[in-house]
Design a protein that fits this description.
- Keywords: Cell cycle, Cell division, Chromosome partition, Mitosis, Nucleus, Repeat, TPR repeat.
- InterPro entries: MAU2, TPR-like_helical_dom_sf.
- It holds the Pfam family Cohesin_load.
- The protein is about 70% helix and about 5% strand.
- It has 27 helices and four strands.
- The chain has a two-stranded antiparallel ribbon. Strands 2-3 form a two-stranded antiparallel ribbon.
- A hairpin with a 2-residue loop joins strand 2 and strand 3.
- The radius of gyration is 28 Å and the shape is elongated.
- The C terminus is likely disordered.
Length: about 650
């Protein structure tokens, strides 16, 4: 470069930055200044850097993604073979791949990232960042084996460079992939490998605490995935203690913690988002354990925190947390007999999905929405709609647990509508699928419960007792209180049907105590009807009248709520079976606007940024069924989703 060219170049850069940082920014003039640089025919490095800067500006401030892509592609072509040009070369590759993904062109993103990974082996920071990004890309496309292989490469390369913190992140991320693939033994092996590294090899106490939160989130989700509600309590308590440490006022900011050196500039999630995530897994545990009041309380706290964070910066991951929490609160409403709030919140969840960038959340959560609508339709005795909603869920989901969950509910629909052949077929299908794979304790117990319910309806009381005792054994082993209360009340009904009033009373009494604690209005309705009959048999008129009055109160509350919810416009959602749901019915004020270029797959890091590992979200939901004119819910897993942040 001549000195005059150099002066022009510096001047144009200065002007571009001046226009960019003006209040308000003048992006058009900023871009014009950068484009003017090309008239001087600058050297390759300058030309490549300018194309990168233009791509960055266009992506950040405009919607002209095609022009941004063109500049980034030029920057990549120019910089790919230039030595000692790492920041521009790899920043370009990362940003270009991100843009391809935003446009659903992951097939174009992958070769760019693979080439960049090949070229970056000498640079630990960029090599790891690009490995995380490519693993994320493969996992988003459900190519979990390839994602796992890349994360293993990360473990090995960080081992060679003695980057212990990064090695821990790669290990935990790989455990998450194994969790998606339901490789239970591999998950445990990797967690056991990571645990001593976190405890003894990480010297920075702040980084150690963040890793502990990541580790405990995975451990809690792993146990919940297996339905081990009792086993998980210790890990959940440790997780809650760790998050309290991180959000304490004297804890340093994320910028201070993750800005020390390149190999420590990788952050899983900011502490404010970790706080919400811990609430979320706590809600999942409460739902599985059958503590609706607790789940409802923590859900409301988490949603309040999300709104607070949205007012500061509306990150796409917040909408993900919001939709999962809404799915939980909807289940709470159904369990507690508040269908009118449930259908409004289903509509809100639908609107949140529709408002996400490129309807990303709708693609991920449509099966869960159909399942929730199926549960809602069951609770209002609209079995034809319930069947169609469960069928839509089964057709759209690839999640084995969600499909099993919907099939169990479909079996209840067939049972209630006396479609014996369809019921036999679906139970055989579930039996065959169960024999090929292991499921969570809750789902397995639920399957035995459905079989017991079917035997009860066929008056095969001995067989019903056998199935229900198996359910109780599984439920009691892991404190699955809702499954326990449902099984006890049905077992009480079995004993009542064979005239064994003593055993019937022994079953219904703890069932009612548990149902009151949950609280579960449907089990209470069912149990009060049994108690009324028992007290009449035992010639106890005072207790009979009390049980009758309780039954009437429960029944009237449910009927009044059903009449109320069927008059809402949101009730029409039960007619949505395919494609996109109807446009938002709720006030737009309820929904915060989504960023125009937002995507769930985004790098999270301090400084120039390091790609984060994966974020697990697991959702444990419960189910509804009807027998003898009253409803009970079948504990199970509505959805288990893993995604990258």
């Amino acid at each position: 470069m001549t000195s005059s060219q150099d002066a022009c170049y510096i001047s144009l850069l200065g002007l571009a930055e001046y226009f960019r940082t003006s209040a308000p920014p003048d992006i058009k003039k900023c871009i014009q200044c950068l484009q003017a640089l090309f008239t001087f025919k600058p050297p390759l490095k300058v030309e490549a850097r300018t194309h990168l800067q233009l791509g960055q500006i266009l992506m950040a401030y405009t919607k002209n993604t095609d022009l941004a892509k063109n500049h980034l592609e030029q920057a990549w072509i120019l910089s790919e073979n230039i030595n000692n040009f790492d920041d521009v070369k790899f920043d370009t590759a990362s940003l270009l791949a991100q843009l391809y993904q935003q446009q659903d062109q992951s097939s174009l993103a992958k070769p760019v990232l693979r080439k960049a990974i090949e070229l970056s082996q000498h640079n630990v920071y960029w090599h790891c960042k690009l490995l995380f990004q490519l693993a994320q890309t493969h996992a988003t496309d459900k190519e979990y084996t390839l994602a796992s292989e890349l994360l293993l490469v990360g473990v090995e390369s960080t081992d060679e460079s003695n980057a212990t913190y990064l090695k821990s992140l790669f290990l935990l991320s790989r455990a998450m992939i194994m969790m998606i693939e339901r490789k239970t033994n591999d998950v445990l092996a990797i967690l056991n490998q990571a645990s001593p590294i976190i405890d003894h090899a990480i010297q920075n106490v702040h980084l150690k605490e963040y890793l502990k939160v990541f580790f405990y989130v995975l451990q809690v989700c792993h146990y919940l995935q297996l339905g081990q509600v009792k086993t998980v309590k210790t890990s959940l308590k440790l997780l809650q203690q760790s998050i309290q440490t991180i959000i304490a006022p004297n804890w340093p900011s994320d910028e201070q913690i993750f800005g020390q050196n390149n190999t420590e500039m990788f952050m899983w999630l900011p502490k404010e988002q970790l706080y919400v995530l811990v609430y979320l897994v706590t809600v999942s545990h409460s739902m599985m354990a059958g503590y609706m009041d607790k789940a409802q309380k923590y859900t409301e706290k988490a949603l309040t925190q999300i709104e607070k964070l949205k007012s500061q910066e509306n990150k796409p991951i917040l909408a993900v947390f919001q939709i999962i929490l809404l799915e939980h609160i909807i289940m709470c409403r159904l369990v507690m007999g508040n269908k009118s709030l449930a259908i409004k919140e289903i509509a809100l969840a639908k609107d949140v999905c529709l408002s996400s960038s490129h309807k990303f959340l709708l693609k991920k959560h449509a099966p869960q929405l159909h399942c929730l609508l199926g549960l809602y339709a069951m609770s209002t005795s609209l079995f034809e709609h319930a069947e169609k909603q469960f069928y839509a869920c089964i057709q759209e989901t690839t999640e084995r647990e969600l499909k099993l969950f919907a099939n169990l509910n479909l079996a209840i629909v067939y049972l209630r509508t006396k479609r014996e052949q369809d019921l036999r077929n679906i139970l055989e299908q579930i039996q065959q699928e169960n024999s090929q794979c292991s499921n969570s304790q809750a789902l397995m117990g639920s399957f035995y419960y459905v079989q017991g319910l079917n035997a009860f309806h066929k008056s095969s009381f001995h067989e019903a007792k056998r199935f229900l005792r198996e359910t109780l054994k599984m439920a009691n082993a892991e404190d699955l209180n809702r499954l326990t209360s449902c099984s006890l009340v049905l077992l009480s009904h079995v004993f009542l049907s064979i005239g064994n009033s003593k055993e019937s009373m022994n079953m219904v009494t703890p069932a009612m105590q548990l149902a009151s604690k949950i609280p579960d209005i449907h089990v209470q309705l069912w149990g009060s009807a049994i108690l009324k009959d028992l007290h009449r048999m035992l010639k106890e008129p005072t207790q009979e009248i009390e049980a009758y009055n309780n039954h009437v109160n429960f029944s009237q509350n449910l009927i009044a709520d059903q009449l109320k919810c069927t008059k809402f416009p949101e009730h029409a959602l039960i007619n949505w079976f395919q494609g996109d749901p109807p446009l938002p019915m709720l006030s737009q004020e309820l929904l915060a606007p989504q960023q125009a270029t937002a995507t769930i797959v985004t790098p999270v890091a301090s400084g120039s940024g390091g790609m984060s590992p994966l974020v697990v979200q697991q959702q444990q939901q419960q189910q509804q069924q009807q027998t003898g004119g009253t409803y009970v819910r079948l504990p199970g897993t509505l959805n288990q989703q893993v995604m990258f942040q």
